Amino acid sequence: MAEIQIAPKYTIGNNRPTFIIAEIGQNHQGDVNTAKKLIRLAKESGADCVKFQKTCLTEKFNKTALTRPYPGANSWGPTYGEHKKFLEFSNEQFRELQSFANEIDILFTASAMDLQSLRFLASLKVPFIKIGSGDSNNLLLIKEAAATKIPLVISTGMQEMQGVRATYECVTQYHKNFALLHCVSAYPTPLEDINLEVINLYKKEFPDIVIGYSGHELGIDVSVAAVALGAKIIERHITLDKRQKGSDHQCSLEPQELKLLIKKIRELEIALGKPVKVFQPSEHPCYNKLGKSLVASRALRNGDILQLENIKIKVAEPKGIDASLLKDVLGKRVKGDINEDGTILEEYLE
């Protein structure tokens, strides 16, 4: 099965635990101290990694996009460029945040929003680089990202299947150390638009790479269900307070929700177990009480041949030959006598 090796102690995929990315994005409100609080929240909640977004504004947007008016309750500036600049950390601030994450032992990375940001993140030696849905059709960026040979995690929101295949083909020219995340870029995502079955579609279409899920829905249930369907990476936005200014906060997880999500995923992983059907030790008390045995439907005498008409299946005391072995005893000869309704024991058969 597909795996990604992203750090010496982190392998994603196969039978490994689900890799959980706490997406801070720009929910830090442009404040480094708030960003550190979110990093610590992710660590204390059991997340594997924190993720930010790195953008060179003049590389990602043209001049007209940066100067267009951006009014509204979530705006941090009169134009879109000023709004984005307010929320963008400098290279030095990124290094500070990476150092803080290293100190408390949680992986640190970011989405590369343009080629310049990609090169900066590569210089930080992040364990993997995220390509967000907004760039899932940006084959120039994806090609250069793949050429670095750094592991990639790519969201696939706002794409048709043809576009997802193009992304896959672009990266696999260089390596297969990457993951595709099913994603719907609506904040929050309506339930009827989520289509978790796409996870199964991706698993069938791309069996040689890791598949995950990046969710923007309200609550945690859908993300837990994604793990049940086989998602090996779960990415969710996190926030200190959903009521804060910003368009991502509403579909982000507050501290207790993040902790509960991770708890539920880890419990589900235990319950999913392995594809092996065995009689579990925990079932013995029930079997001892209610497990079925073979009994004589009439008195059997020495030399009688066991046939369907002289056998019944009942809860018996003492417990005898298990009911599942019925076919194995047919045609065997009885030695000694067995009373009607008596248990058929192994020692009674030749």
Structural class: alpha/beta
Question: What gyration radius follows from the Cα positions, in whole Å?
Answer: 29 Å
Residue ranges: pLDDT <50 for 5 or more in a row? none
The CATH topology of the largest domain: TIM Barrel
Query: Which CATH architecture of the largest domain would you pick?
Result: Alpha-Beta Barrel
| CATH level-1 class of the largest domain | Alpha Beta
Order of helices and strands: EEEHEHHHHEHEHEHEHHEHEHHEEH
The amount of beta strand, in percent, is 15-25%
The number of helical runs is 14
| Domain tally | 2
Shape type: elongated
Please give the share of residues in helix.
25-40%
CATH superfamily of the largest domain: Aldolase class I
Give a quick rundown of the structure.
The chain has 350 residues and is an alpha/beta fold.
Characterization of this structure:
By secondary structure, this protein is α/β, with parallel strands linked by helices. The protein has 2 domains: 3-272, Aldolase class I (TIM Barrel), CATH 3.20.20; 281-348, Antifreeze-like/N-acetylneuraminic acid synthase C-terminal domain (Type Iii Antifreeze Protein Isoform Hplc 12). It is built from 14 helices and 12 strands. It has helices spanning 32-45, 57-60, 63-67, 80-87, 91-103, 115-123, 139-147, 161-172, 191-194, 197-205, 221-228, 255-272, 284-290, 326-329, and strands spanning 3-7, 10-13, 19-25, 49-54, 107-112, 129-131, 152-155, 178-183, 210-215, 233-237, 292-296, 311-315. Strands 5-4-3-10-9-8-7-6 form an 8-stranded parallel sheet. The protein has a two-stranded antiparallel ribbon with strand order 1-2. Helix 11 (221-228) links the parallel strand 9 (210-215) and strand 10 (233-237). Helix 1 (32-45) runs parallel beside helix 12 and helix 7 (139-147) runs parallel beside helix 8 (161-172). The protein starts with a strand and ends in a 21-residue tail after the last helix. 36% of the residues are buried. The model has no long low-confidence stretch (mean pLDDT 96).
